[in-house]
Amino acid sequence: MTTKVFSKKIFLNQNKKDSEMLKSFVEQLKKIFPEKEKELTEISLEVEKAQPPKAESPSSEPSLLKSIVEELKAENKKVLDELSLYKTKEEQRDKILELKLITEQKEKIEGLIKKAIEGKKIPAKNEELINTYRVVLDKNFEAGEKIINQLPAISEASQTKPAEQTTQTRKSENPILSKILERNQILN
Question: What is the C-alpha separation between 54 and 49, in angstroms, rounded?
């Protein structure tokens, strides 16, 4: 009885070559132990019943592996294509956002310059000065905005002749200083 259980555990799922060896071994045991012939016959029958399932032929294994590899390659290509599409969309989104940011920055600059011109802080006819403020605002908007907001409003006379007013102001404010400037020929 114990031999039967033992044989099931050992002989089950063995390949064909091993099962043939076990049959010959059982035959040998029958010769040695003739009184156990009945049990040994049962073991040999169980070995025949417990033939392992036929393994796939070696020629089908490579084709199976090839098909698995092909499936994995196709899946990998699909994932890479999706990733590439995602990257392209992200790059397009970044470009759009960058262009939008540049456009908004230019609008803010032009709005601030227009406000300064309307507030008579920058002369409207002086394109060189306006372009200088554009460059300053483009490089550092916050600092340029503070500079423009701190500018005093200019009067009509200073818009037409700023150099003459400056010299007259200097002469009239402090007569001693005007004499010193004239002597050192800083004026004119």
Answer: 13
